[in-house]
C-alpha cells in the first residue's frame, strides 16, 4: 500500500522493503535505500545482481511485488513512467536518426501539454546544448556525430525536461576506453552544474569509483554494502566486495585468534598472517574460514635485501613470472614462497629506486599488516 509523503527534505529516492519477483526468480529482495538529493548514486554489481531492475523500479518500467518506492517524498507505486519526475539515458541512447540534434533534444518538450511555443522550445534547446557543450550543433544529424557527441545529445534530451532524477543505464558502455574516461569527467561535472540527482547502473567498478558520491554494491538481489568510494575500497566488509572493487590478493585459511581489531589467520600453506578487521564487517572468531586481503599497490617489491622492505611485517622471497608495463605503473605477477602467486603494482617512482626488474628475476616482496584486511568468506 502506498505510504504517506515523506517530509524529509534531503532524500530524492527511497526504497522501503522493496521486493521484485519474476515468476520464481527474486530479482530484488527486501531492499531499503535512501538516495540523497543532488547526489551521484551508483548501483554496482555483476550481471543478474538486481541493479538494472532497481533502476527500472525507479523509472516505472517495473512495479514492486512488495514494498514502496518513493520519489521526492511521495510514493510512485502504480504511477506510469511518463508521470514520474525522472528521465533516463539508455545504454544505446535511443536517439531518432531522422531528427536533427535540436529536434532530438526538444522532443520531450513537444510532447508536453500544454505544449511550449516554438520560441520557448528553441530557447531551452539552446540552453541545454550549451550545458552539454554542443552549441552550434543543432542542425546536425545523429549520424554526423561521434559517439561522445551522441551521448551528450542523449543527456541533453533527458535534462531539458528538468527531471528531479536522471537515471543512467550503463551510458558509457558503447564508448572506447579513452572516450569513456573523458565522459566520466564530463558526467561528474555536469551533475555538479545542474545539481540534480544522478542514479547510475554499471558493472564497471572504475566507472562507479570515479564518478559516484555513494555506491550500492549488490549481489543476488541483496545490498551487500553501501558507502563512499574510498570506504568501499579501503574497508570492504567481506571478500565479495574486496574482490569486486579493485584488485586484491587473497590468502585463504582459518582464523587462529582475534586481538582487538586484528585477526591472525593461518593460511593453507601453514604461514600465519594478520590483518585488520574492516569497519562495519562481521566479527571473526577462531575457527572461521577467512582470507587475508592484500591490495597489489601496498605490496613492496625489490631485489633481495632491498632497504625499502626493511620496515615490512611480512617478507617473502619470490620470482617474477610476468611483467606488464602500464605507463605510470608496472604490474608484476610473482611466485612467492609459501604465498603462491602474488600480484604487485609498483609505481614509476619505485622503479627508479629498485631499478628495472624483469621476468625471471629473483626478488623479495613485503607489506605492512596495517595495510591488509582479514575478511569473512562469502
Structure description:
The protein has 378 residues and is α+β, with helices and mostly antiparallel strands. It folds into three domains: 11-233, Rossmann fold (3-Layer(aba) Sandwich); 239-293, OB fold (Dihydrolipoamide Acetyltransferase, E2P) (Beta Barrel); 295-368, OB fold (Dihydrolipoamide Acetyltransferase, E2P), CATH 2.40.50.100. The chain has helices at residues 51-59, 101-105, 107-110, 118-131, 147-159, 177-194, 205-211, 229-234, 239-244, 348-354; strands at 11-22, 25-36, 40-44, 66-71, 74-75, 86-89, 165-169, 197-202, 214-219, 222-227, 249-259, 262-267, 272-276, 289-294, 300-302, 314-325, 329-336, 340-347, 362-367, 373-376. The strands form four sheets. The chain has a six-stranded mixed beta sheet with strand order 6-7-8-3-9-10, sandwiched between helices. The protein has a five-stranded antiparallel beta sheet with strand order 13-12-11-14-20, with no helix packed on it. Strand 12 and strand 13 (272-276) form a beta hairpin. The chain is globular, with a radius of gyration of 25 Å. It starts with 10 loop residues before the first strand and ends with a strand.
Key attributes of the depicted protein:
378 residues, alpha+beta, Rossmann fold, OB fold (Dihydrolipoamide Acetyltransferase, E2P), 3 domains, 6-stranded mixed beta sheet, 5-stranded antiparallel beta sheet, 20 strands, 24% helix, disordered N terminus
Amino acid at each position: 500500500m502506498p505510504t504517506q509523503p515523506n517530509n524529509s527534505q534531503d532524500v530524492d529516492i527511497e526504497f522501503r522493503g522493496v521486493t521484485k519477483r519474476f515468476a520464481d526468480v527474486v530479482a530484488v529482495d527486501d531492499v531499503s535505500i535512501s538516495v540523497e538529493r543532488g547526489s551521484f548514486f551508483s548501483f554496482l554489481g555483476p550481471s543478474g545482481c538486481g541493479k538494472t531492475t532497481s533502476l527500472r523500479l525507479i523509472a516505472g518500467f517495473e512495479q514492486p511485488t512488495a514494498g514502496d518506492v518513493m520519489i521526492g517524498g511521495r510514493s510512485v507505486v502504480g504511477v506510469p513512467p511518463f508521470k514520474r519526475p525522472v528521465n533516463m539515458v539508455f545504454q544505446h541512447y535511443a536517439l531518432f536518426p531522422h531528427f536533427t540534434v535540436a529536434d532530438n533534444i526538444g522532443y520531450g518538450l513537444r510532447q508536453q501539454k500544454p505544449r511550449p511555443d516554438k520560441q520557448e522550445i528553441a530557447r531551452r534547446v539552446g540552453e541545454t546544448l550549451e550545458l552539454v557543450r554542443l552549441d552550434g550543433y543543432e542542425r546536425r544529424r545523429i549520424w554526423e556525430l561521434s559517439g561522445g557527441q551522441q551521448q551528450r545529445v542523449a543527456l541533453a534530451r533527458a535534462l531539458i525536461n528538468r527531471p528531479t532524477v536522471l537515471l543512467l543505464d550503463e551510458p558509457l558502455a558503447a564508448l572506447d576506453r579513452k572516450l569513456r574516461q573523458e565522459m566520466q569527467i564530463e558526467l561528474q561535472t555536469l551533475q555538479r552544474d545542474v545539481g540534480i540527482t544522478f542514479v547510475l547502473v554499471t558493472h564497471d567498478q572504475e566507472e562507479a569509483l570515479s564518478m559516484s558520491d555513494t555506491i550500492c554494491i549488490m549481489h543476488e538481489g541483496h545490498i551487500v554494502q553501501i558507502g563512499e568510494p574510498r570506504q568501499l575500497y579501503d574497508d570492504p566488509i567481506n571478500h565479495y566486495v574486496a574482490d569486486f572493487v579493485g584488485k586484491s590478493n587473497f590468502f585463504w585459511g582459518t582464523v587462529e585468534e582475534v586481538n582487538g581489531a586484528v585477526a591472525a589467520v593461518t593460511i593453507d600453506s601453514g604461514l600465519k598472517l594478520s590483518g585488520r578487521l574492516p569497519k562495519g564487517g562481521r566479527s571473526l572468531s577462531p575457527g572461521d574460514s577467512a582470507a587475508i586481503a592484500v591490495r597489489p599497490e601496498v605490496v613492496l617489491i625489490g631485489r633481495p635485501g632491498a632497504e625499502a622492505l626493511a620496515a615490512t611485517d611480512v617478507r617473502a622471497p619470490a620470482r617474477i613470472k610476468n611483467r606488464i608495463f602500464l605507463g605510470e605503473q608496472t604490474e608484476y605477477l610473482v611466485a612467492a614462497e609459501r604465498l603462491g602467486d602474488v600480484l604487485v603494482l609498483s609505481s614509476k617512482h619505485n622503479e627508479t629506486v629498485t631499478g628495472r626488474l624483469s621476468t625471471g628475476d629473483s626478488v623479495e616482496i613485503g607489506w605492512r599488516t596495517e595495510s591488509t584486511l582479514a575478511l569473512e568468506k562469502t
